[in-house]
Specification:
The N and C termini lie far apart (43 Å). The chain is built from 6 helices and no strands. Helix content is 81%, strand content 0%. The longest helix has 24 residues. The protein is elongated and about 55 Å long. With 104 residues, it is mainly α.
Length: 104
């Protein structure tokens, strides 16, 4: 099976358009992180950070019988919600600024 270059270029343009059109909603990212840490980051497309937060939250939940991890988990969860919300709110601002600089 052989693809010509025009088909490859068209499929890459479709992928780039789909990625460019996705703009996460800040309230939704915050809500997903409130449900479980890491979900908001995954919704934003940051799967590495989201997976790390997810595993870290799971480990902290397992060690809840200790008092110190409980407080660490609460602080971590609050930061997680804030980070997912602020990332989604600022999503695309840097991209728009870079586009304007390129046009000048």
């Amino acid at each position: 099976m052989c693809l010509n270059t025009e088909e490859i270029i068209e499929s890459n343009d479709e992928i780039a358009t789909a990625v460019h059109e996705f703009k996460p909603q800040a309230w939704r990212a915050g809500l997903y992180s409130a449900i479980f840490p890491g979900l908001g980051q995954m919704y934003n497309g940051d799967f590495g950070r989201g997976s790390f937060y997810f595993v870290l939250a799971f480990i902290l939940i397992i060690t809840f019988y200790l008092v110190v991890p409980f407080f660490i988990f609460i602080v971590f969860w609050m930061y997680n919600i804030y980070q997912a919300y602020s990332y989604a709110r600022n999503f695309g601002k840097d991209f728009n600024n870079n586009e304007q600089e390129c046009e000048d």
